[in-house]
C-alpha cells in the first residue's frame, strides 16, 4: 500500500509524525466498491457496443441522423448556455450588489427552480400554447430551469470578490457600471462559467422537455430507439455517442471549477455595500426578479389549476395518486440513503488523503455526473436482462440507477463537509485514547453531518423528478408522480396531468427549501 498524506482543509499538511500515514485498507476497499457501482452502467454499455458488429457500429456512427442529432444538441446546448450565463450573472448581481426589499426572499426564489422539473415547465407551455414546438420554446424552458446553476455560484463568488480595484477604477473616472464590468465581473466569471457548464450538462442529458416540445436531441433519439426497435444496438451506439459528449462537458466543468477554487483568496478590507437604486430602479429590479420567479415557480401551478377549472373539475383517482406519491418518496428516499452510504467512504478518502489510487477512485465515483438518465437506464436494462434477469424492472435496479446518476451530488457535499472538520481535532481525540471509529463518530461525523444530510436532500429532490431511467426501469404496475405526469401529457390529457404535477411540485419543493435554508448550492447537479 502506497504511503499518502492526510490533507486538512486548504491543502496544508500538519507538522510532525502525523503528516504521513497509510490509507486504511477497509476505507479504500469500501470506496473502491462504491466507485465500481458508479462505473457499472458505463462499463456495461461499452461491453454491449463492443459485442456488436463493427461494420454496423461504424455505419450507425456515420449516418446522417447521427450528424443531425449532434448538430441539434450542440445548438441547443449553446443557446441554453448563453441564456443561463447572461440571466444567471444578472440575477446574481441584483441579489448581491443591489439593496432589495426582503433580500432573503429573493435568494430563496432564485434557488427554488432547482425543484421544478424541466418537463413540468414544458407541459405548462404546451397547456397555454399547444402549438409551441421546437428550439425556441425549449431554450426558454431550459434557461428558466437551469439558471440557478449559474446564479448560486456566481453570487457566492461575487460576495467574496475583491472590491478594491473597483474602487480604484471609480476614482480614475470610470462609471459604476463600467467599473463593475471591467474589474469585478472577471473575478466572477470562472464560477459563473463552471455553473454554465453544469447547465449545459443538464441540457444535454434532459429528456422530458425535448420530447414534449418535439425537438430531436440525443436523449429523445435514444429513448425512441429503445422503445421502437427489437434490436437495441442502435440505441446503445447513440447512447455511447451521447455519453462521450457529456464526458467532455464534465471534464470542462471540473477544469473550470478547479480554476475557480484555486484562485488566490482576497483580503479586501473594504467591500462595496449594496447600492440603492432609488424607487424606479428598485422597482425595475424587483419586477425583473419577480417575473422570472413567476414564470418558473408560480406559472406551472397557475396553469395546472387553470386547466382543472377550465375542465369544470376532474375526477381525481386519489388512491392511485397517493400510491404514486408514496412510491416517489420511498424510491427517492432509498436512493438518497444509499447514495449517502456509498459517498461516505469516497468522500472521507478524498478529503483526507492524496495519491493516484485516491484520485482514480474519486474520478470513477464521479462518472454518474457524465451519464444521462436515458443512458444509465438503457445500460441497466442490458445488464439486468443479461446477468440478473430476475431483477429486471424491480425497485432495487431503479434505486441503483438513481444512485449512479446522483452519487456525485452526495459525494461533493460529503467531501466538502469532511474537509471543513479540522484534522487537528481528530488527532487530539486519538491522543486522548479514542479509537479511530470512536473519533469518527464523536468528532468528524458530529461536525460533518449537516453537509452530508444536505447531499442526501439534494439526491432526494433530484430523484423525485427523474424521468427517463424511471420510465425504463420502474417495476411493472408501479407509478411515480413523474411517470403519471408523463403518461397523461403524452396522451394530451392536460387536465388529468394536473394533480400528479402539482403533487410532484409540492413534494420536491420541501427538500429544495431545506437545501436553500441550509445554504447548499448545486455541485454537479443535473
TrEMBL record:
Gene3D superfamilies for the chain: MetI-like (1.10.3720.10)
Cross-referenced SUPFAM superfamilies: MetI-like (SSF161098)
Limits of the ABC transmembrane type-1 domain: 70-253, 325-515
Family the UniProt entry places it in: Belongs to the binding-protein-dependent transport system permease family.
Annotated organism of origin: Pseudonocardia parietis
Record-annotated membrane-spanning stretches: 26-47, 67-92, 104-128, 134-158, 234-252, 286-309, 329-351, 363-385, 391-411, 440-464, 501-520
Lineage of origin: Bacteria, Bacillati, Actinomycetota, Actinomycetes, Pseudonocardiales
Name of this chain's protein: Iron(III) transport system permease protein
Subcellular location: Cell inner membrane; Cell membrane
Highest taxon in the source lineage: Bacteria
Keyword list, A-Z: Cell inner membrane, Cell membrane, Membrane, Transmembrane, Transmembrane helix, Transport
RNA-binding in keyword set: no
